[in-house]
Amino acid sequence: MDENLQKLAEKAGIAVSFSDAGLQHRNYEVDEKTIRFFLKALGYPADTDSQIKTSSERLEKRRWQTVLQPIYTCRQNNVIIDIVAEDLSNINLRVRNASGCDYELGYEYQRNAVNFGRLYKEDLKITTSLDIGYYDLTATVGGKDFKTLLAVAPDKCYNALPPEKKLWGFALQLYSVKSKRNWGIGDFTDLKNFIRLCQKSGADVIGVNPLNVLSHDYPEEASPYASTSRQYLNPIYIDIEAVPEFNPADAAQFKDRLDELRASPLINYTDIYELKIKMLEKCFARFSKNKDSERQHAYDEFCLSQGESLQRLAVFQALYEQQTKTVWGGWRAWPKEYRSPTTLGTRKFAAENKTRIEFFKFMQFEAARQLNEVGTESKACGLRIGLYCDLAVGVGRDSAENWSNTGLFIKDAGAGAPPDAFFSSGQKWGLGAFLPRELKEQKYQPFIRILRANMQNAGALRIDHVMSLMRLYIIPDAGNLGTYLYYNFEDMLNIVALESCLNKCMVVGESIGNVPQGFMEAIRSRGIYSLSVLWAERWNDGRGDFKAPAQYPPAAFASVGTHDMAPLRMWWFGYDIELNFSLGIIKTPAEREGAYHQREADRKKLLTALDEAGVWPTDKPRCGDYLFGEKYPEGIEEAVMRFMAKSAAPVFLAQLEDILHVEKMQNVPGTDRDKYPNWRHKLPVNLEDLPEDPAFIRCIDAICKER
Description:
Elements: H1 3-12, E1 17-19, E2 27-29, H2 32-41, H3 49-61, E3 71-75, E4 80-85, E5 91-96, E6 102-104, E7 107-109, E8 114-116, E9 119-126, E10 133-141, E11 144-153, E12 167-172, H4 188-201, E13 205-208, E14 212-213, E15 229-233, H5 248-252, H6 255-263, H7 269-289, H8 294-323, H9 344-352, H10 354-380, E16 386-391, E17 395-396, H11 400-404, E18 413-417, E19 427-432, H12 436-441, H13 445-455, E20 460-463, E21 471-476, E22 483-486, H14 489-502, E23 506-509, H15 519-525, E24 529-533, H16 539-542, E25 556-559, H17 568-573, H18 575-582, H19 589-613, H20 636-645, E26 651-655, H21 656-659, H22 694-704
Parallel strand pairs: 3-11, 12-13, 12-26, 13-16, 16-20, 20-23, 23-24, 24-25, 25-26
Antiparallel strand pairs: 1-2, 4-9, 5-6, 5-10, 7-9, 8-9, 10-11, 14-15, 17-19, 18-19, 18-21, 21-22
């Protein structure tokens, strides 16, 4: 690679080489075409030697062009800012806190000034004690005032775990919940009812899938990890019968169809969503007639508190609904006058379609009300953690987030992952990814708003692919291999820790995949818990023996698997191997045979680990090696639950799919619904029947023996 191109890429935060997390740990040298693509995306064109030189000079000068950075994020015990000016001899610093109080700050020079021509840059350490929080900081330099945002963060994230007790709970895919009363998909009332079940079972936490709003016009695009906005909720989770304006007569004519939707083993997203929208439109019409009601006032306060973010989401949804009737290809294919929230055409559309826009806001208002009730129920039931929400790593490219702030996202590329031990071909998620520099220029406000929205009713927040706080693997739309783009890791950690404490919400980082050296130590030092999965907690890079319970990380939330992995019974029989072969993920019969041989060895390793841990139920002891073709080991799900409950991890999350003998995966990465019904499988037992289900009872008893 050209040396100057390489230096420019490294300074811009683009990896020129990387290693994957596959079993072979292959190394990759990123080709120049990819490097040039990403440099251009970051605003540093590098197609010629002249462009490389110009871009390098621009990058070198960047910090010297402003007196202050747009934001400073600092730890509470080490608040340092840097200032650029010709004369640094007489500086005054003052701040305004969240309460509107102004006061001056003491500081001391760090005496490490560097210069760029006539300009000097000096680090100043604030000596005035500051509480954690956000401050508007004004620096008077040379008689002129310059403003910035100061974020003072704690050393560690919020922690609600009792030191004397290890907790447990459930990992629940809310959409998959089957009940006698819901409309064919799990909803917020199901979640409230499940909280009550947790209280009776002794559970203290419920991990849920991302609950964010998806496409209004294409309900079958059901991946909860590709939302249209990570700030707002999916109306499909609204319990229609719990909406104050609902009239039972509205749904009477649909009784037979509702029975069919409930009975279906797969979720029919289109019919369920369209039916709920019809009912919500009727509710909205009644709501709109009561202008002076207490509920109307609550709605007005909600809209005011959400501000421009909610308005832009609602305008986007109303516009999309109109445009999709004649335009194919998403918002980028719309007439130019509608491709931004600030254009004259968009503003005119908003003025002419106020009622429809208000309807979309109403749905968010009601969804938020119902989820708030879930949070209230969790506290009333005394759950130590309560909801453990899930924040997706990115946002759908054809999304309101992207449309609302196009300059914030990398164009013509999306987030993914290189090969690793679980997904040998890598993954091309196609999710929108933040531009690091632009994110900081916007004072991290988009990231902060997303964190706050998802922490609001949560006692813990799972950050999907937490490595994205440091770096994110980005793939050009026109290719299959990309490279890593680096973010300001310290800034991101400080923001996460600060929002965690302000919202009293623990943070868990999902770190399955390609983890940089030293990364886990860095997040643990900031009080971020890791995620430990049975299938990954093995020696020899995930290929050796299963670790004993005492060898699990002491700062982790543990589970058997994830929504991307085979449930226990499916794994045991190798049904996932056959599925992957049928889908072309396993390419040849020889690879399939090798996978079966490896699975047989892994099954023996699991049996050995369960034996050594002494977790088999006394009335269902192990009675053989259970070779392929033999029966499913009675009691193995109880043994696995007890094994995980014995682990050193302070929180264990049991999956109902493992307990209830589910043989289907919720999601097969790298496939869409034309190949496999991702995100559509319901649980086999009604929520109302769980307390009497023998497998459920026995597994809960097994967990409670150790927790």
